[in-house]
Design brief:
The chain has two helices and no strands. It is an all-alpha fold and 29 residues long. The protein starts with a helix and ends with a helix. The chain crosses the membrane at residues 9-28. Keywords: Membrane, Transmembrane, Transmembrane helix.
């Protein structure tokens, strides 16, 4: 269970910044 949680947290941490970066790029221009 700990390994599954670790992978989920890694995917969560990697997945969250992408839409934020896209929003920043959209509003930056």
């Amino acid at each position: 269970m700990e390994r599954v949680m670790g992978k989920g947290i890694l995917l969560w941490l990697l997945g969250i910044p992408i839409p934020i970066i896209l929003l920043i790029l959209l509003f930056w221009h």
